[in-house]
């Protein structure tokens, strides 16, 4: 009798465990609670920061921390099937906190520059924190790249972060609640989805700021770039848009066909002189507003790596690391020199709050800001 009872109990327990694990196999929350994909990464603002590792079935890997939403590492295969890191950054959190040219971070409330650190909204002037001479850049002195984000959910291949920016933080009106979802798909795409809501009219323009180098080190002048844009927004000497929208045809800004970054970057051109190279916004050829659009393709001949960029944003800032100056020692002891990395930052146009003719960045109560950015990798 005792033996039979024990057997019956064993059968019942085994059945219960089978149901439990079957449920966990389809439950994101079970994955979150049982996952060991995070490790301590230091402290910021008195809070413990974690580093999360996302993986896909193809062997790709992304590491993201909840300080600044920074992508600290992105490992993708080359044409020989070897995986290596293709983004610039640091080996430790302390270096990101001490000084960084926005390596891999989530940028906000407003990506890019706002002239004079000022805009008018609903007849009222708002003065922003100035951190780029007389301008506000990438959200101000303590933008979204320097705050601690709340971890909402973490699975083996995704991470969801949340942050609430208080009214008048860095000078911006309204309490802005932001959610950021990072996913590493089995199609070898790092997919970013940003969403935001506000309780008062405000400006919102979020983007991602990884510096890429598909060769792993050295300059990026041999990378081949195609940008799906027939126009760009020229700037003045302070890198603020003039308000014009200029055709790229016949200029060094024409990347409508595959072109090496270094082919025309040293041309005698006022716009290139202002930016010390490319540091401009391209007006993407969208079929309609908010349509998911193929923005660019970048390839590197030696490694064979290819990246396609997709976005719902109307513009993309293409930056060629012109302000890297060998003073930064990055991952693995590498020194990052002039033009050792490039950025492709899908976003609204710079200084849009001061240019009514540009697509609006105003977010109102009851609306939801949405922005999708996809960096998809392949080889050839």
Structure description:
It is a single chain. The chain has helices spanning 2-26, 28-34, 93-98, 270-275; strands at residues 38-44, 47-55, 61-65, 71-77, 83-85, 106-107, 113-114, 118-121, 124-127, 136-137, 150-154, 158-165, 176-184, 189-198, 202-203, 207-208, 224-227, 229-233, 246-247, 259-260, 279-284, 293-299, 305-311, 315-319, 328-329, 335-336, 343-347, 362-363, 369-379. With 380 residues, it is mainly β. The model is unreliable at 1-35 (pLDDT under 50). The longest helix is centred in the first third of the chain and has 25 residues, at 2-26. The strands form eight sheets. The protein has a nine-stranded antiparallel β-sheet with strand order 11-12-13-14-29-23-22-17-20. 42% of the residues are buried. It starts with a helix and ends with a strand. The chain has two domains: 2-34; 38-379, Beta-galactosidase, Chain A, domain 5 (Distorted Sandwich).
What's the topology here?
Layout: H1 2-26, H2 28-34, E1 38-44, E2 47-55, E3 61-65, E4 71-77, E5 83-85, H3 93-98, E6 106-107, E7 113-114, E8 118-121, E9 124-127, E10 136-137, E11 150-154, E12 158-165, E13 176-184, E14 189-198, E15 202-203, E16 207-208, E17 224-227, E18 229-233, E19 246-247, E20 259-260, H4 270-275, E21 279-284, E22 293-299, E23 305-311, E24 315-319, E25 328-329, E26 335-336, E27 343-347, E28 362-363, E29 369-379
Antiparallel strand pairs: 1-2, 2-3, 3-4, 4-5, 6-16, 7-10, 8-9, 11-12, 12-13, 13-14, 14-29, 15-28, 17-20, 17-22, 18-19, 18-21, 21-24, 22-23, 23-29, 24-27, 25-26
């Amino acid at each position: 009798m005792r033996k039979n009872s024990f057997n019956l109990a064993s059968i019942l327990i085994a059945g219960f465990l089978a149901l439990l694990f079957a449920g966990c196999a389809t439950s994101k929350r079970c994955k979150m609670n049982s996952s060991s994909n995070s490790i301590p990464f230091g402290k910021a603002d008195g809070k413990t920061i974690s580093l999360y590792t996302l993986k896909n079935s193809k062997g790709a890997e992304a590491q993201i921390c909840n300080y600044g939403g920074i992508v600290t590492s992105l490992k993708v295969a080359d044409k020989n099937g070897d995986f290596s890191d293709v983004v610039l950054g640091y080996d430790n959190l302390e270096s990101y906190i001490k000084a960084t040219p926005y390596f891999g971070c989530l940028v906000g409330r407003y990506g890019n520059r706002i002239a004079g650190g000022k805009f008018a909204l609903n007849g009222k002037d708002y003065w922003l924190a100035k951190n780029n001479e007389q301008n506000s850049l990438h959200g101000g002195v303590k933008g979204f790249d320097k705050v601690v984000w709340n971890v909402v959910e973490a699975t083996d291949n995704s991470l969801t972060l949340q942050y609430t920016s208080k009214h008048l933080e860095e000078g911006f009106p309204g309490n802005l609640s932001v959610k950021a979802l990072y996913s590493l798909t089995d199609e070898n795409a790092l997919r970013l989805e940003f969403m935001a809501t506000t309780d008062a009219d405000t400006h919102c323009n979020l983007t991602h700021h990884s510096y890429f180098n598909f060769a792993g080190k050295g300059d990026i002048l041999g990378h081949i770039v195609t940008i799906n844009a027939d126009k760009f927004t020229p700037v003045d000497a302070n890198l603020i848009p003039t308000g014009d929208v200029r055709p790229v045809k016949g200029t060094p800004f024409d990347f409508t066909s595959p072109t090496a970054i270094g082919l025309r970057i040293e041309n005698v051109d006022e716009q290139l002189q202002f930016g010390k190279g490319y540091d401009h916004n391209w007006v993407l050829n969208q079929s309609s507003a908010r349509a998911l659009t193929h923005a660019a393709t970048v390839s590197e001949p030696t490694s064979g790596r290819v990246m396609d960029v997709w976005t719902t944003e109307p513009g993309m800032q293409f930056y060629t690391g012109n302000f890297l100056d060998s003073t930064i020692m990055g991952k693995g002891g590498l020194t990052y020199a002039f033009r050792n990395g490039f950025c492709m930052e899908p976003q609204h146009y710079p200084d849009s709050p001061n240019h009514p003719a540009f697509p609006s960045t105003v977010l109102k109560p009851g609306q939801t800001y949405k922005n999708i950015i996809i960096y998809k990798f392949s080889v050839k």
